[in-house]
């Protein structure tokens, strides 16, 4: 049970990919008797386990995890739908007098909860989407992304140019509303008291951790996992399959690149992703209590969580 003066407390654990968020969240959940809510968009999809570094049953250590394996690879979980699901889970946990632990490196999903985003309600314009997709097919994804950079540089900062679906959606909303896509996600008043625990590493060590993880994925059967998804009919063009690892291994399976090239691209693209994550979780953010990954002390983190230090109340 939390202190009476806290209003709807939530713990957030953030940091770059391969920083150790999953292990830390499980330790904290065990220590305070709580549950974990995943804010990693790659964990949503069933059958995509190795390439997402999704924790298995033994790693979860009997700690309940929410929002893992909730969709098939051809389904879409929008930020708005995610926010709705998380709100319901958090409300139920508060009724059970538990402090939710929200964990993930997908910045927009974390910020949607943290800042109580109001999502723009713009109905899909399928005709416009087809035109934009045809433009990207004819001139290249990068050309459409460069247009987005010109009209809405803030939106372009948080969108991977290789993710055509998100680029098309942002341009579609801009053309339909005449407003920047980045300006249409309104911040409402925060509704949770929260603590932000961040894990950071020296960049060179983090890159080595990522490289080691990728090599382990290959050894653990990642190629077989991607081949199985292809055989089940999940298109490489699906948003879920555009994640780092799946697109590179698909290209290898189709004979477009060698395995060494695929692994090299996975490592390089992961580094780019880390730099993009840093746009969401900045070292100088006063709301994040950063801990060095090389010297994590669970007892110190628990002491911090139990103290008044760092709690930021809504309003």
Describe the structure in your own words.
It is a single chain. Helix content is about 45%, strand content about 10%. It is an alpha/beta fold and about 325 residues long. Strands 3-2-4-1-7-8 form a 6-stranded parallel β-sheet, sandwiched between helices. Strand 2 (about 35-40), helix 2 and strand 3 (about 65) form a beta-alpha-beta unit. Helix 9 (about 205-220) packs across helix 12, helix 10 (about 220-230) packs across helix 11 (about 245-255) and helix 11 (about 245-255) packs antiparallel against helix 12. The mean pLDDT is about 90.
Task: Compile the SSE list and pairings.
Blueprint: E1 9-14, H1 21-32, E2 36-38, H2 57-60, E3 65-66, H3 79-95, E4 101-103, H4 107-114, E5 117-118, H5 126-139, H6 141-151, H7 153-157, H8 164-177, E6 186-187, E7 193-200, H9 203-219, H10 222-231, H11 246-253, H12 259-277, E8 288-292, H13 298-306
Helix pairs in contact: 3-4, 5-6, 5-8, 6-8, 9-12, 10-11, 11-12
Number of strands: 8
Order of helices and strands: EHEHEHEHEHHHHEEHHHHEH
Task: Catalogue the unreliable spans.
Answer: none
Distance between the termini: 22 Å
Q: Beta-strand percentage? A: 5-15%
Shape: globular
**Helix content bin:** 40-55%
Count of helical stretches: 13
Keywords:
single chain, 315 residues, alpha/beta, 8 strands, globular
Structure summary:
47% of the residues lie in helices and 10% in strands. It has helices spanning 21-32, 57-60, 79-95, 107-114, 126-139, 141-151, 153-157, 164-177, 203-219, 222-231, 246-253, 259-277, 298-306, and strands at 9-14, 36-38, 65-66, 101-103, 117-118, 186-187, 193-200, 288-292.
